[in-house]
Amino acid sequence: MARSVISHLRGYDRSQYAAYLAGCVIFSYGASCFIAADLGTDPLDVFALGLLEHLPLTIGIAQALFAALCIAIWATWNRRRPVISPFVTFFFCGSLIDIARAADLAELPVPNTVLMLIGSLLCAYGSSLIIISGIGIRAMDLIAISMTERWRLPFWAAKSSTELVLLVSGWLLGGPVGIGTVCFLVVVDLLVQPLMRLNGTVLRLRNAGIPSLSVAESRA
Questions:
Q1: What backbone phi and psi angles, to 5 degrees, belong to 214?
Q2: How many folded domains does the chain comprise?
Q3: Of the four, 31, 64, 128, 219, which is 20 to 30 A from 109 by CA?
C-alpha cells in the first residue's frame, strides 16, 4: 500500500507540485477574504448548513460526507478506485484558512463587496491551479471533469450545473443564501476554465487535470 502511494506520488513532476501548492495557498487566502466579507456562503456551505438543519452534524463532517459521496459516484462512473487526495486538499486548505483568519490576514481596508470580489477571484484562480496540477482535485470538480470528458460539456457549464444543484438543494434544506453566494457561483464557476487556459498560454502549464483542455500540449 505504502509503495503504491509513493510510486503514485513520484508520477507527478515539479511543476505539478508547484501548481498544486500555489493553488491551495491562493484558494485558501481567497476563501479567507470571502469569509471576512460576510456577505454569504459558497454553495457547498449552503448545502452543509442546510443539512445541519435536519441532522446532528458539524459543517466539516457534512462537507466530508458530501465529498465521500462525490468520490464514490466518480469512482463508480469511471470504474476506478476511490481516491483520498481530495481529502488531503480539504484538510490542507482548511488549515491554511484557519491560519489566515487567526492572523487577520484577510482584514483588508476595503469595502466588504470589494473583499468579496477579491476572495471570489482568488478562489477561482486557486481552483484553476489545483485542477491543472492534477493533484488533489476537489471531489465535486472530479464529477464536473467526468461530465466534461463523457458528455463533451464545457467545464464551466459542468461545474456551474453541479454547484447550482448543490446550492438549490441546500437552500431547500434551509441553508442561507446571500449576494456572496451568487457572486461565488458566477465568478468562480465561470472563470475557472478561462483561467486554466491563461495558465497554459502565459505560464505554459500543462493541464494534467483535464488533458483535453491543455493549451500547452496543443501547442507542442
A1: -75, 115
A2: 1
A3: 128
CA 117 to chain centre: 17
Residue 94 belongs to a domain: yes
pLDDT value of position 59: 87
Cell numbers standing for residue 11: 508520477
Of 109, 120, 122, the closest CA to residue 179 belongs to 120
| The three three-digit cell numbers of residue 25, written as one number | 495557498
- What is the per-residue burial (b if ≥16 Cβ within 10 Å, else e) of 44-60? bbbbbbbbbeeeeeeee
Compute, in degrees rounded to 10, the torsion defined by CA atoms 152, 154, 155, 160. Answer: -120
User: In this model, does residue 4 exceed pLDDT 60?
Assistant: no
- Domain-located, residue 110: yes
Model-level pTM? 0.91
- Is the pLDDT score of 220 beyond 80? no
Domain assignment of residue 203, yes or no: yes
Q: How confident is the model at residue 2 (pLDDT cuts 50, 70, 90)?
A: very low
